[in-house]
Amino acid sequence: MLKGIVVKAYNSYYYIQSGGKIIACNLRGRFKKERFSLLVGDEVTYTLTGPDKGVIEEIRPRRSMLKRPMVANVDQVVLTFAAVNPNINTALVDKFLVIAELSELEIVLCINKIDLSDTDSVAKLAELYEQIGYKVLTVSAKQGLGIHALRLLLFDKITVFAGPSGAGKSTILNAIQPGLELMTGEVSHKIGRGKHTTRFAELLPVTGGGFVVDTPGFSFTEFNDIEEAHLMDYFPDIARIAPTCKFSTCLHYKEPQCGVKQAIASGLISQARYQSYLEILTEIRESKKGY
Ligand SMILES: Nc1nc2c(ncn2[C@@H]2O[C@H](COP(=O)(O)OP(=O)(O)OP(=O)(O)O)[C@@H](O)[C@H]2O)c(=O)[nH]1
Ligand SMILES: [Zn+2]
């Protein structure tokens, strides 16, 4: 049986990448009856019905499933921010981190446009997140700095790039894989990535093995699914200290004898991170009130 990976779904065809070739496949009827939705990223077995046509016979169990965009077997997310232009905003970084933690993906923090920023502030920022335990890469897509290290991280993995508009995601992907020719700058909003293309992601192959996902669709509405008491689980620096709080139900808000607040006072947890935590905690509270 031949094996492949679904890289694109379009017009009831599934395009399978298999041994360097793209095969246009249909689903066996029984999958339709089961209303099984095959996703980009799914690993399948298929039989050929023509030189580049086939039928999908079996779907391998999924290792993971990302909801936005809907992609199976995503291994990691590269959260991309510009150091400047637009200036990095740690509150926003922390929000993206929480969403990525929720999805249980490996996380890489990528700080782009270091050609425009001063070395000291980038180093400080990198250190803040490295101390929490995140992998941080500082790059300049424009000058090609750090791109090789990033490329190495993509090997044999399915990687989603997420981050605010203008961070340089498309420019980075073009630097990694020149053939992609993703549109950058303002044009990208109008052509190629219109409304219709956002729902269905496509896997783009990286030379040497691995794929990147072309339409990151992170959404912060997912904060509404988080219970107040669980928010800290998505802040590794806070979760580590939480067992030292006097009360096991401590939300590190106004509770007495809070180990987290002591850790902030002693510099073990950054004040900025705590502010981000409180901001999201408040958002969760407000959203629950609405019901
Ligand atoms: N100076 C500098 N400019 C960069 C760098 N990377 C990207 N840019 C510029 O930043 C702007 C935004 O880059 P894009 O790649 O379109 O950003 P994006 O994250 O894909 O944006 P969206 O498509 O809106 O999500 C473009 O004008 C790029 O030329 C860099 O490393 N240095
Ligand atoms: Zn506490």
UniProtKB/TrEMBL annotation:
What compartments host this protein?
A: Cytoplasm
Locate the EngC GTPase domain: which residues?
72-219
Q: What is its EC number?
A: 3.6.1.-
Where, in this chain's numbering, is GTP bound?
N112, K113, I114, D115, G163, P164, S165, G166, A167, G168, K169, S170, T171
One GO term under biological process is: ribosomal small subunit biogenesis
Chain sites annotated for binding Zn(2+): C245, C250, H252, C258
Keywords on record: Cytoplasm, GTP-binding, Hydrolase, Metal-binding, Nucleotide-binding, Ribosome biogenesis, RNA-binding, rRNA-binding, Zinc
Per the record, GO CC terms? cytoplasm
Enumerate the cofactors the protein uses: Zn(2+)
**What does this protein do, in the record's words?**
One of several proteins that assist in the late maturation steps of the functional core of the 30S ribosomal subunit. Helps release RbfA from mature subunits. May play a role in the assembly of ribosomal proteins into the subunit. Circularly permuted GTPase that catalyzes slow GTP hydrolysis, GTPase activity is stimulated by the 30S ribosomal subunit.
PANTHER family found in the cross-reference section: SMALL RIBOSOMAL SUBUNIT BIOGENESIS GTPASE RSGA, SMALL RIBOSOMAL SUBUNIT BIOGENESIS GTPASE RSGA 1, MITOCHONDRIAL-RELATED
Subunit structure, interactors included: Monomer. Associates with 30S ribosomal subunit, binds 16S rRNA.
Record-given protein name: Small ribosomal subunit biogenesis GTPase RsgA
Which species is listed as the source? Sporomusa termitida
Q: Which gene encodes it?
A: rsgA
